[in-house]
Every structure is written in structure tokens, then in C-alpha cells.
Amino acid sequence: MKRIVDGRSRNKMIQEYQIPDELLARCAGQEAICRTVLEKFIEQMQADLPQLTEAVGRGETETAARLAHRIKGASANIAASELRAAAAKLESAASAQE
């Protein structure tokens, strides 16, 4: 599968990212921990997003709902509320089609 962001771009993006206060609080104020959490999030999204796209394209609603649920939870963990909301809508739509 194609990488969404290459390693160098990802590292720069993570270093320049303005960490939300909510995430910083969850990480006991430790920016280094936040950046590690963000790194793991990006790695997981690089796997999950193409799988989600493929599942939706093939009409695999159960798989799409499962992946959307995982993305929803992961985005909530990093305080990405807009992504969480979008994933929740996708999860609901896929679950309604099962």
C-alpha cells in the first residue's frame, strides 16, 4: 500500500504540529510523549485509511464499520474532534447498512 506521508515529511509535520491542550493534559504535559503518540497515530492511519477505502469500495460494511470505529477511538485519543466526528458518521452509516 502507498504511504500517505513519507518519514521525513511525517517527522517535520509532527514537530510543527500544535499539540491540543487536551492531548497535552492526557500526556501529563510531556510534549515528547504527545509527539510519540502522534507518530503512532499516523502509522496506524497509514494502515487503516487505505483498508477503509478498500472496504467501502467493495461494499464490506462490517469491515468499514470496524475500521471507522478504530479511527474514531484513535482520533479521540489525540483530541482530533473533527476526525472523530467524521469517523463516527461513517461508522454509523456502515453499521446501518449491515
Sequence stretches where pLDDT stays below 50 over 5 or more residues: none
In one word, what is the shape?
elongated
Strand content: under 5%
**Average of the residue pLDDT scores:** 89
Distance between the termini: 27 Å
Reported for the largest beta sheet, the result is: none
Structural class: mainly alpha
Order of helices and strands: HHHHH
User: What is the C-alpha radius of gyration, as a whole number of Å?
Assistant: 15 Å
What portion of residues is helical? over 70%
Number of strands: 0
**Count, helices:** 5
Write the layout of secondary structure elements.
Blueprint (H helix, E strand, L loop, with lengths): L6 H10 L4 H6 L4 H28 L2 H17 L3 H17 L1
Q: How would you sum up this structure, described in words?
A:
This protein is mainly alpha-helical and 98 residues long. Helices cover 80% and strands 0% of the residues. It is built from five helices and no strands. The longest helix is centred in the middle third of the chain and has 28 residues. The radius of gyration is 15 Å and the shape is elongated. It starts with 6 loop residues before the first helix and ends with a helix. The model has no long low-confidence stretch (mean pLDDT 89).
